[in-house]
Amino acid sequence: MAKKDSFIEERRRKLDLLILFLITSLIISSVILYNKMNEAEDLSKDLTAKQEKREKIISENKKITEKQIENDNLVGNHDVSVTSEDFNHLYFDWNSWEMYSKNMKEIREKYPNLERSKYVDISGMDVGTGRSPESVHKVQIYNTSKQGEIAEIINQNRRYDDRVTERLIFKVSEYDKGRYDIKEFKVYNRAL
């Protein structure tokens, strides 16, 4: 009988330990779940706040853009700014020789007077062989004292497989009587 009592006692201890382990596991799991729920709630609040902030920034940017267009119209530079932005996108942004040639063709179609320009080559004939670099640009625009004219400082980066080149361009553009023209185009090269 002593053996049976000791067996029952040992079984009871094992059962008590199992119950204690399960209760401890349940408490720890509850704490972890509670913390995860709080963390998820905090992340949700942060996300909502950031979305609201983003929407506010977009709204403010839209107001600034509208004000800039209003100012450009007031000083007579809206048309030249929009046209120059289109030209710059076509002239400076490309990632293959095919795209470069296509962009030059589009420039010739949109701005035929630039084919005779002494400042820019839009013939599309200066394509290279092999893989082309990827070209991107950034622009800073300045109003000049003349209505319908802007000055720009353009930073063009060309990324080749083995190097990057940077060109700074000073460009003066004019839009008069429906015609876009480039009055000055100075290039400063720098290899990085």
TrEMBL record:
It comes from the Bacteria. Keywords: Membrane, Plasmid, Transmembrane, Transmembrane helix. The keyword Transmembrane helix applies. The chain crosses the membrane at residues 15-34. This is Uncharacterized protein.
